[in-house]
Each structure stands twice: as structure tokens, then as C-alpha cells.
Design brief:
By secondary structure, this protein is of the alpha/beta class. It contains 13 helices and eight strands. The longest helix has 18 residues, at 231-248. This is Carboxyvinyl-carboxyphosphonate phosphorylmutase.
């Protein structure tokens, strides 16, 4: 499969399945998708049970990201919000994410505290301040195979043209992939994809502001990367709600469930059983 940079250089479209814990990561790793995306929204919700509103810290995130990288085989794209502070924080965050084995870090130009990109009340910092963050991030990495994704949230509050201007500034500052958050139509998506000579990323949130287009259409428009941060936790939440409500009401479960034997395989029990066969004392 290679690194994320190699995948992009080969002209392959990158599909980043959104994961938020080790169960979702293990299952995503068994698919034919060529990347994994660690969603800040989902990880904060799973770990803290709180909204993606600038509450989670670098420490909250980096340990979970490191575990996901270690437990999977695909390139991992990881959300790093605003870099968790100022320029020195960005430098520290880039070093930490790269050490954790991440293939690409996503940094955004929101004011702190940030908010999920498909929710209300987002405000952005000055373009020059974000461009400096991207320069710091680019200089902080030890390998060019570690990619910098620059996200702007300017579309919603300041319009598409301002978001595109910011994308150009961030590309010039050293970003490898440009991410214009929350376009509201296919026409806007087309304008974004054709504007840059670097790969562009589209964030497809089920129930969000951006149309969910098939992969073939995204390729036609010119995008290089698509991430799907919400599909996993939304599907899991619906299944849990239905199954738990039936259980609480004393009803027979009718929700489709994962095969238990297959889940044992996904989570790694065959390796445990092989270890026991090799090392455990007879009768233990």
C-alpha cells in the first residue's frame, strides 16, 4: 500500500474511513479502504462523552491516536484541531503525532475553543496567523512523508472566496493537502477541487452541510482525499439505541449484530489461543 504520500503520488484516490476507538479501527482496517481517519468529534465523544468543542487536550488525543496506529496497518490521518494552542503547541503537536506514527496531521484555522466543522458558531483566526502555524508545522516534522493538512472553516462565516484565498495562503506556507470545510453544493465542491495544484480533501459528514457524492464523482471533480468521520459512530449509535431499547423493554433483539466468533478474530483472540497452545502449562 505504501505511505499516504506514495498513494497520492500514484494518483490513487484516498478514502479515509472515520474511526473513534479500537473496535472501529480494527474493523476499518479489514476493509479495502486505503486510509483511516481518526475523527476528533468521534474520539472526544467516545472517550469523554462530550461535544467536539475544544474540550479535549493534546494528551487526551495523542495516546488514543498512537494506540490506533499501533493496532492497524493502513496510513492514519489524524485530527489535531487547532494544534492545541499557539505556535509552540503546534510544534509540539506535530512532533508528537509524527512520533505516534501518524501519516498526516489535520490543523484548522478556527479560534479557540474550536467547534465541529458542521456545527454553528465557528470563527476563524487571521489568515496570516494560520499561515504561520502551517510554517511551524512544516518545519517541525522530521520526514516529508508526514503530511500537513491545512483546513479552513472560513466558508460558513466569510464565504467561499475567502476560504479559497486562505487555502492558497496555507498551500504557499507549506501545507501538502488543502481542506476547505463545509462547502454547501456540488458547484462549490467543483470550484474547490479545481482551484489548487495540491491535493484537496473533502469532508463528507452524513447529516452535515456538504452533499455526499459517490467516489467516482469526487474523482471527476478532482479531489484527492475524502474522509467520512461520522458514518461509523452514527451507525453504531443507531444500532446500540435500537438494541438497548429492545432489551430494556423486554423484547427479543431484532437489531443486526456482529458474529461473535468473527468479532473474536477481529479483536485478536486467535493470537491469544496460539500463545496458550505454545506456552501455557497443560491443564492450566
Amino acid at each position: 500500500m505504501g505511505t499516504l504520500r506514495q498513494i497520492l503520488q500514484r494518483g490513487e484516490f484516498v478514502t479515509g474511513i472515520g474511526v473513534y476507538d479500537m473496535i472501529s479501527a480494527r474493523i476499518a482496517d479489514r476493509t479495502s479502504a486505503n486510509a483511516i481517519y481518526v475523527t476528533g468529534y468521534g474520539t472526544v465523544a467516545s472517550h469523554l462523552g462530550l461535544p467536539d468543542a475544544g474540550i479535549a487536550t493534546y494528551t487526551d488525543m495523542v495516546g488514543r491516536i498512537e494506540r490506533i496506529v499501533a493496532g492497524t496497518s493502513k496510513p492514519v490521518i489524524a485530527d489535531a484541531d487547532t494544534g492545541y494552542g499557539g505556535l509552540l503547541n503546534v510544534h509540539h503537536t506535530v512532533r508528537g503525532y509524527e512520533k505516534a506514527g501518524v501519516s498526516a496531521i489535520q490543523l484548522e484555522d478556527q479560534e479557540f475553543p474550536k467547534k465541529c466543522g458542521h456545527t454553528k458558531g465557528r470563527r476563524v483566526i487571521p489568515m496570516a496567523d494560520m499561515a504561520q502555524k502551517i510554517r511551524v508545522a512544516s518545519d517541525a516534522r522530521s520526514s516529508e512523508d508526514f503530511l500537513i493538512i491545512a483546513r479552513t472553516d472560513a466558508r460558513t462565516g466569510l464565504g467561499l472566496e475567502e476560504a479559497l484565498r486562505r487555502g492558497e495562503a496555507y498551500a504557499e506556507a507549506g501545507a501538502d493537502i488543502i481542506f476547505i470545510e463545509s462547502p454547501e453544493s456540488e458547484a462549490e465542491m467543483a470550484e474547490i477541487a479545481k482551484r489548487f495544484d495540491k491535493p484537496t480533501l473533502i469532508n463528507l459528514v452524513h447529516g452535515g452541510s456538504t452533499p455526499i457524492l459517490p467516489k467516482e464523482r469526487l474523482v471527476e471533480l478532482g479531489f484527492g482525499v475524502a474522509i467520512y468521520p461520522g458514518l461509523g459512530f452514527l451507525a453504531a449509535a443507531k444500532a446500540l439505541e435500537d438494541a438497548f431499547n429492545d432489551l430494556a423493554a423486554g423484547k427479543e433483539n431484532t437489531t443486526p449484530i456482529y458474529d461473535f466468533a468473527k468479532f473474536n478474530e477481529v479483536i485478536g483472540f486467535p493470537e491469544v489461543w496460539e500463545f496458550d497452545r505454545k506456552y501455557a502449562a497443560p491443564g492450566s
